[in-house]
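BUG: 3D viewer hangs when loading the predicted structure for this chain

Environment: internal workstation, default settings.
Expected: structure renders.
Actual: progress bar stalls at 90%.

Input used:
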Amino acid sequence: MRFARLAWVPVLLLAGATALAQPCQSDLRPADDNFGYRHRPSPDRCEGLYSAPVAGEGLELLSYLIGHPASNPRVDNNLLIIAPDVHPLGAARVLVVARALPLRVYYRMDTALPSGGSMHWPVSEVVLPAGLTPGNIGLIGKVQTDGTTVYVPLWLSPPEQDTSRPASQPVITFRATTDLESFQWRLYAAGDAAPAWNKYGAVVRAGDPIGLTLSAPAGKVTTLYVAARPVGSPFIQQQYKIFHP
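Structure tokens produced before the viewer hung:
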């Protein structure tokens, strides 16, 4: 991915401004404490812990990030979430979802950012006091275009870091809720010949993060196909539209 050609200079929100409003998830049951999932202002978002859902997906996409800095809870009260420019997709905003990577840790944040915009994520308000760490939370960005969900990489950095250009390729992270015999993927654009499947070499146990570094032409929407085979079961196959800015 070639970022040198891109105008990825984030449009920082002015003091007192907030991210664009995003409704809270009505099907979640907030935990009964100060860290329960609810609307929180400054910045405008829904964030917190919730009770275990009735059932979960067998394979979940939990993160699509450029950079995942280690944080020092004594110093880093905020992290900077930056959205890419999604105007080429005909979109004006990016929906942001944060979820805990470990199994049976029910944390979520929902917000929205303008195209190319950013938000100071106050990890000292919910994440750190609830005993979580930013390193164990995944973030995804997505837009709706022509009735299709397209996933876009977010950029996470300390608030004082130079944000003029991403320093690394994005990593997309999945999680299986059961042990896997096999995980494989392939990525290609419409009209291209289907490439061979890439096989994930590591053993995948339930809850293990499956991180993939994807390489694709900049400025194009491609389709990521994944196939996961739980132990003793048929393959689970899913596909995702991916935008590389």
